[in-house]
Amino acid sequence: MKDMPTYYDLVYAVVRKVPRGRVTNYGAIADFLALGASRMVGWALNNSHFMDDVPAHRVVNRKGELSGRHHFATPTMMQELLESEGVKIEDNCVVEFKTLFWHPQELGDWEPF
DNA sequence: TGTTTGACCACGG
DNA sequence: GCCGTGGCCAAAC
């Protein structure tokens, strides 16, 4: 683990800011953080497994599909977590994803720390 | 040190 | 509206 601040921390911070019962996608985070590469968000979330306060289950791909469910402890845990927050999941896709979609820019001015 | 891959997205056909 | 291709940056091999 590293202490030096990286885009990981920014991704983690943004994901933590995601309101409960709301979901976002990699592109939004990548665009908000100006990473220029959505793949990095996925990589960051991959390391987020070591974090407890990072609700990675609220992050889905642009299609609203739970692309990362396979990376969780159990493939169904991600869906269970989302449903537990009031987010309906059907066929591994977020129902009304377009409506439940949340953009980090909604925070306006935010502080990673 | 160069190649490959990765929880992706945008664009074009 | 679906499928194929390119691009993006970073880490692992």
Question: Could you characterize what this model shows?
Answer:
- The protein has a single domain (7-106), classed as Orthogonal Bundle (Arc Repressor Mutant, subunit A), CATH 1.10.10.
- It is built from five helices and four strands.
- The protein has helices spanning 7-17, 26-32, 38-47, 77-84, 97-100, and strands spanning 24-25, 59-60, 89-90, 93-94.
- The strands form two sheets. A two-stranded parallel sheet has the order 1-2. It has a two-stranded antiparallel sheet with strand order 3-4.
- Helix 1 (7-17) packs across helix 3 and helix 2 (26-32) crosses helix 3 (38-47).
- The mean pLDDT is 89.
- The structure holds a DNA duplex (13 and 13 nucleotides).
Number of helices: 5
Morphology call: globular
> Which structural class best describes the helix and strand composition?
mainly alpha
Q: What would you give as the CATH superfamily?
A: Winged helix-like DNA-binding domain superfamily/Winged helix DNA-binding domain
Major sheet characteristics = 2 strands, parallel
Give the low-confidence spans. none
CATH class descriptor name:
Mainly Alpha
Spatial ordering of strands, largest sheet: 1-2
Number of domains: 1
Which fold does the CATH topology refer to?
Arc Repressor Mutant, subunit A
In the CATH hierarchy, the architecture is Orthogonal Bundle
Order of helices and strands: HEHHEHEEH
Percent strand: 5-15%
